[in-house]
């Protein structure tokens, strides 16, 4: 069963969904969601996208692209939220 998802992008999509939840709680000020946790998840997703067929899945790529655009938007927004997002490398 563990190999059932091998080659599919289910796990990558799940990681992107988790990243989005992390960002939500990060914005709400949850101290357990740190910059390094978010950065680590972004790096994991990037590695998974390169090492799997996920990059050929338009839905997973679009989902990730949308999430990265959101992070960029928050950085450019300025103010307290912009400062909060500034250390995140996308």
Description:
The chain has 90 residues and is an all-alpha fold. It has one domain (11-85). It is 69% helix and 0% strand. The chain has four helices and no strands. Helix 1 (10-27) runs antiparallel to helix 2 (35-51), helix 1 runs parallel beside helix 3 and helix 3 crosses helix 4 (79-85). Residues 1-8 have low confidence and may be disordered.
Helices, by number, come to 4
User: Unreliable runs, pLDDT <50, ≥5 residues?
Assistant: 1-8
Q: What is the residue-averaged pLDDT? A: 87
Could you tell me how far the N terminus lies from the C terminus, measured between alpha carbons in angstroms?
33 Å
β-strand amount: under 5%
Structural class: mainly alpha
Classify the helix fraction into a percent range. Answer: 55-70%
- What is the radius of gyration? 14 Å
The overall strand count is 0
Biggest sheet, open or closed, and with what strands and sense?
none
Shape: globular
- The secondary-structure element order is HHHH
Taken together, the total number of domains comes to 1
GO cellular component, one term: retromer, cargo-selective complex
GO biological process, one term: retrograde transport, endosome to Golgi
Membrane topology: Peripheral membrane protein
Main location: membrane
């Amino acid at each position: 069963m563990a190999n059932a998802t091998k080659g599919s992008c289910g796990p990558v999509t799940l990681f992107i969904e988790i990243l989005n939840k992390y960002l939500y709680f990060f914005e709400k000020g949850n101290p357990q969601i740190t910059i390094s946790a978010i950065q680590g998840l972004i790096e994991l997703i990037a590695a998974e996208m390169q090492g799997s067929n996920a990059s050929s899945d338009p839905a997973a790529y679009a989902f990730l692209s949308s999430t990265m655009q959101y992070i960029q938007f928050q950085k450019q927004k300025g103010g307290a939220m912009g400062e909060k997002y500034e250390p995140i490398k996308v």
